[in-house]
Task: structure prediction
Amino acid sequence: SSELTQDPAVSVALGQTVRITCQGDSLRSYYASWYQQKPGQAPVLVIYGKNNRPSGIPDRFSGSSSGNTASLTITGAQAEDEADYYCNSRDSSGNHLCVVFGGGTKLTVL
Amino acid sequence: QVQLVQSGAEVKKPGASVKVSCKVSGYTLTELSMHWVRQAPGKGLEWMGGFDPEDGETIYAQKFQGRVTMTEDTSTDTAYMELSSLRSEDTAVYYCATLGRYPNNWFDPWGQGTLVTVSS
Result:
C-alpha cells in the first residue's frame, strides 16, 4: 500500500508563515486532504481537493501540490493554530477504495 | 448537514470483541461512504476500512482483515464497527467518518470518537 510521509514537528513564530508538507507516490494521482486535530478532539477537515476550504475554516489556510508533495500553508499563524496536522489521500498502489494517512505533524506556534 | 454520533466508551478484556456504533443524522446512510479510523494514545490516524455505496463493497485495511467487520443498519441509519480478538494494542479512540465519492478523498464530517480500552 502507499505511504505518506510528514515531518513529525514544525514550529512557527506567531504571525509568520509555515508550510507543512506531505510526500508520497499516491500524491501524483490524488490531491491530499488536510486535517487539524487539537488535543482531545476529533480531526477537522481544513483543506480538500486542489485548494478548497470548508465553511468556517479561515482563509489563512491554503493547500498546494507539486509532483509527489502536497503542502499545507498557514499564512499568519495564530496561537489557536497550534495542533496536529494530518494529510491523507487514496491509495494509488492497490484498491482505489483504500485510504492512507500521513503520520502527522505537530505544529507549535511560538 | 450530516452529523455523526458515536456510542460511549468501552472497556474490554483481551480476546473479547467490541462493537462501536455511529448514528447518522441529516442524511441517509445509504447515500454515504462510511469509514472507520482509529488513533492509539499519542499516535497518528490509522484507516481501518469502509463502505463504498456505489460499488456496494466494504473494504478493510490489510492489517485488520479477519478481525474487523463493518456493517450498516439502514433502517436506523446506524453504522457499526466490530473488532474481535482484542489485544492491548487495540486500545485507541475509534472514529467514524464519511468519505467523499471517488476520486475525492476527504473525510468530513467525523464522529466524536469512541475510546476503547483493552485491559485485563
About this structure: Residues 70 and 81 of chain B are 5 Å apart (CA to CA). The two ends of chain B are 40 Å apart (CA to CA). Chain B has a mean pLDDT of 95.
